[in-house]
From TrEMBL:
<feature type="transmembrane region" description="Helical">
    <location>
        <begin position="469"/>
        <end position="497"/>
    </location>
</feature>
<keyword id="KW-0472">Membrane</keyword>
<feature type="transmembrane region" description="Helical">
    <location>
        <begin position="288"/>
        <end position="311"/>
    </location>
</feature>
<comment type="similarity">
    <text>Belongs to the ABC-4 integral membrane protein family.</text>
</comment>
<protein>
    <submittedName>
        <fullName>FtsX-like permease family protein</fullName>
    </submittedName>
</protein>
<keyword id="KW-1003">Cell membrane</keyword>
<feature type="transmembrane region" description="Helical">
    <location>
        <begin position="340"/>
        <end position="362"/>
    </location>
</feature>
<feature type="transmembrane region" description="Helical">
    <location>
        <begin position="242"/>
        <end position="267"/>
    </location>
</feature>
<keyword id="KW-0812">Transmembrane</keyword>
<feature type="transmembrane region" description="Helical">
    <location>
        <begin position="390"/>
        <end position="409"/>
    </location>
</feature>
<feature type="transmembrane region" description="Helical">
    <location>
        <begin position="421"/>
        <end position="448"/>
    </location>
</feature>
<feature type="transmembrane region" description="Helical">
    <location>
        <begin position="754"/>
        <end position="778"/>
    </location>
</feature>
<feature type="transmembrane region" description="Helical">
    <location>
        <begin position="790"/>
        <end position="812"/>
    </location>
</feature>
<feature type="transmembrane region" description="Helical">
    <location>
        <begin position="12"/>
        <end position="35"/>
    </location>
</feature>
<dbReference type="Pfam" id="PF02687">
    <property type="entry name" value="FtsX"/>
</dbReference>
<keyword id="KW-1133">Transmembrane helix</keyword>
<dbReference type="InterPro" id="IPR050250">
    <property type="entry name" value="Macrolide_Exporter_MacB"/>
</dbReference>
Length: 830
């Protein structure tokens, strides 16, 4: 049957254009997503900068530390403690060593990522004095060129606060950081922690001495200590989070539409297949022919899709960069290497596999076509649901309902993990698409009830055409269902979750004012002390730190907040599952339930500065609320924050005591923050800013997740309607022969396409209702009753574009066919 398949493709190639297009685009989507994900597997190759001239660097690094699991700037226990004096002495015995410190130091008008070093670090980063001299006294500094000059007095913001220094010298600018240099003694005061040790002893001997206490860096490996390494990793981690979600949605859309298009294409050829059965073809031969056609079309389309993926991936990467969803250096290199040929191979194999899987069930149905059907002129569908479609549709529906129910009841926190939850949302949409023929009849009757009562023939034709060709109606409505269903489910889920998080923040924050960083990475200690001196208020400075606890044979690391125990309950309403937050004292701790301990237990906490403390657990926080809270401990441990982070507070909550005048406090807060890189706002204003910022971020993420899939769905809508319209030329001939004018015929087909869109929208509404109902139940457990929010304007635009494309896809082939006469049209399929 291969020769028949080849002849069929040669002479009836127009019948396979739709399936070729669908499979090509599906393979393209899979290839593009694979190439984009492959491009995230490595960081850009950069030469070392900060330690460019250092022969050997002993760095306080932990090779097992995964920064993607923590907030930017957090450190492992080894990193936090830095190079110990004992290790420094042992390395120094092998040759000269230079300790290097890095800490927060920002000129009053300097960039937020400005950093401070001791002057000895300048020699390793190719810094050169452009004017003045090196700092000799503790109140002297060297600053980058372009600002104050030698002899000028300047204000430098540090974790402790602001201090006046005299500019002793100016360095030529470098492109990898903006640094302020201090004397070694002043740097040691500002940062007791030693980040690294530059060693001049033999590298192998240094490695033997260091052992597992730190990492010995040479060559290009020294670049991991550059600022760009951390920012590169942070940026690419965000991209890595987004792309798999996009790949799941894109893969689902491409696989479903390709399989659906293949099945529809085979169903269109029932009469042709019946003719083959009439001339003696066996069911097995028919199946072999259909599979052979799929192999030929699938192979060509998969290869074309892979090639198109190579062309499409680089501009998509540039678009992600322009939208701020990928770092500026992110690009897709389509030259050679595993990150190119592996995704392409997966895409081609998947595309061909989907083609075969999509056509396999259709080929079995084709083999069951009876020869007598060749004599049938009517297009009435006698059997719209096969046993396989029933099975898969019901399985998808059952799995979707059970999984969504399980998430809503037993594991509501999963809705806040999009990489896991978005995949679940696909199953109700898939189930409604598979079971569409069952409900098309009732839906069409409901939608077209006004048409049935109209006096004209056009309404009756539209209604009866959809009812008699249920399979065709369901197949052409599938892309619309997918387009609108994904839009409502994903956009609605994102908007509803944002609203729930906003509600959770509003329920948790009970403070009246919030002090925030202003052009700085955090609020320094001087601002906090000034605020605490204001009468009539309670303050909670959220000072991030890290605590470490022994978990079996390893050290578990947890992010924590050092706060004022007495003021905490008056500023924040924590999601306490056990115990009470009011019991927080200097010798107690509030932990997240991920710690696996209960109230009353004592945990031996390792602190970032090298100390230890036995702390009794007084409260356990729930992890199912979407809160980022991990642990709270007394601010008597605040000094450890400069080891674990920068020593800067993320924000300061201010709560008024009874009888305190808000306007007086507002003015006092303005004075307390003036010139210190902070600003005070009403808590309600801050909550609004946070809500808007988070909503913009999630909306931007959905632009990528949905954008590619929606574009493909739009193309699939046109493709499917064109395929259906090409199959309707005989119907067009009958309309023309019975007296219909070209305008009337076009209006009938336009109305049919709009009816298909309406059916798809209603099915999408049903699938989305299931998804959003589960989300609503889950969020109800997390943060309380949360109204379901759907961006109707965006969904309406997407639906309208889909409707326009559907009408165009249906009318363009009909408009071209009207150039022929009715008699010629009547013979198009003979």
């Amino acid at each position: 049957m291969l020769s028949i398949a080849l002849q069929t493709l040669r002479h009836r190639w127009t019948a396979f254009v739709g399936t070729f297009v669908a499979l090509t685009l599906g393979t393209t989507m899979i290839a593009v997503m694979g190439l984009e994900i492959g491009a995230t597997l490595g960081l850009p190759e950069r030469l070392p900068h900060r330690y460019a001239t250092a022969p050997v660097v002993v760095a306080a690094l932990d090779p097992e530390w995964d920064p993607a699991r923590h907030d930017p700037g957090s450190r492992s226990l080894i990193q936090a403690r830095g190079i110990s004096a004992d290790l420094a002495a042992r390395v120094d015995a092998l040759g000269r060593t230079v300790p290097v410190r890095s800490f927060y130091a920002q000129l009053a008008d300097g960039p937020a990522d400005q950093v401070g070093h001791g002057w000895s670090a300048a020699e390793f980063g190719a810094y050169a004095l452009r004017a003045g001299q090196a700092p000799r006294a503790d109140d002297e500094i060297v600053v980058p060129d372009g600002g104050p000059g030698p002899g000028q007095r300047v204000t430098v913001l540090t974790a402790d606060g602001a201090r006046e220094y005299t500019v002793a010298g100016v360095t030529a600018p470098v492109d990898f950081e903006s640094a302020v240099f201090f004397t070694e003694s002043e740097a040691a005061r500002l940062s007791p922690r030693v980040e690294a040790l530059v060693a001049y002893g033999p590298a192998e001997q240094v490695r033997r001495v260091v052992g597992g206490e730190a990492e010995v860096l040479t060559g290009d490996r020294r670049g991991v200590l550059d600022p760009s390494y951390g920012t590169d990793r942070e940026a690419i981690d965000n991209t890595r989070t987004l792309l798999p979600i996009t790949a799941v949605v894109a893969g689902f859309v491409s696989i479903f539409l390709v399989a659906s298009t293949f099945a529809f294409a085979v169903a269109q050829r029932r009469r042709e297949i019946a003719l083959l059965r009439t001339v003696g073809a066996t069911p097995r031969q028919v199946r072999r022919m259909v599979v052979a056609e799929a192999v030929l079309v699938g192979t060509a389309a998969a290869i074309a899709g892979g090639a198109l993926g190579l062309v499409t991936a680089p501009p998509l990467a540039r678009g992600m960069v322009e939208l701020g969803m990928a770092p500026p250096w992110f690009t897709v290199d389509v030259s050679t290497g595993p990150t190119v040929w592996v995704p392409l191979l997966i895409a081609v194999v998947t595309g061909l596999g989907v083609a075969l899987a999509g056509v396999w069930a259709a080929s079995r149905r084709a083999g069951e076509v009876r020869p007598i059907e060749a004599l049938r002129d009517a297009t009435v569908d006698l059997r719209t649901m096969t046993p396989g479609r029933w099975l898969y549709g019901l399985l998808a529906l059952a799995f979707g309902l059970v999984t969504i129910g399980w998430v809503a009841v037993a594991n509501p926190g999963m809705v806040l993990m999009p990489t896991r939850y978005i995949g679940i949302l696909m199953f109700p949409i898939l189930a409604f698409a598979l079971l569409a023929p069952v409900v098309v009849g009732p839906v069409v009757r409901l939608v077209t009830r006004p048409l049935a009562r109209s006096r004209g023939a056009a309404g009756m034709l539209v209604r009866e055409s959809a009812l008699t060709a249920v399979r065709r109606t369901a197949a052409t409505a599938a892309p619309v269902l997918l387009t609108v269903g994904l839009s409502v489910s994903l956009l609605g889920a994102a908007a509803t979750i944002d609203r729930a998080k906003d509600s959770g923040r509003r329920n948790q924050v009970t403070a009246d004012f919030v002090v925030l960083p202003a052009g700085t990475p955090g609020v320094n200690q001087a601002v906090t002390e000034r605020i605490r001196a204001i009468p009539g208020i309670d303050t909670v400075a959220v000072l991030p730190t890290m605590v470490y606890a022994r978990d079996d044979a390893r050290i578990a690391d947890y992010e924590a907040q050092a706060v004022d125990p007495a003021a905490l309950p008056r500023a924040l309403r924590l999601p306490v599952r056990q115990g009470s937050a009011t019991e927080l004292r200097d010798d107690t701790i509030i932990v997240n339930e991920d710690w696996g301990v209960d109230v009353g237990e004592t945990v031996e906490v390792l602190l970032a500065d090298g100390g230890t403390a036995p702390l009794r657990v007084v409260a356990v926080l729930s992890t199912t609320t979407g809160s980022n809270d991990v642990a709270y401990l007394s601010d008597r441990f605040a000094d450890t924050a400069r080891y674990a982070f920068t020593g800067l507070s993320r924000r300061v909550y201010v709560t008024l005591r009874p009888g305190t005048d808000p306007d007086t406090v507002r003015a006092a807060l303005g004075s307390a923050t003036a010139g210190l890189g902070a600003r005070a706002v009403d808590a309600e204003q801050w909550l609004g800013e946070e809500s808007s910022e988070n909503s913009e971020a999630s909306t931007l993420g959905m632009v990528l997740v949905l954008g590619i899939a929606i574009v493909f769905c739009f193309i699939a809508i046109v493709n499917t309607l064109v395929m259906a319209a090409a199959d309707r030329l005989r119907d067009l001939a009958i309309l023309r022969l019975t007296g219909a004018t070209p305008g009337q015929a076009l209006r009938v087909f336009a109305a049919e396409s709009l009816l298909v869109v309406g059916v798809g929208v209603l099915l999408a509404a049903g699938a989305s209702a299931v998804n959003l109902a589960g989300l609503w139940l889950a969020l109800g457990q997390l943060v309380g009753p949360t109204p379901v929010t759907v961006p109707l304007g965006t969904v309406a635009v997407i639906t309208a574009v889909g409707a326009v494309l559907a009408v165009l896809g249906a009318l363009l082939p009909i408009r071209l066919a009207l150039r022929s006469g009715p008699v010629e049209l009547a013979g198009v399929r003979e």
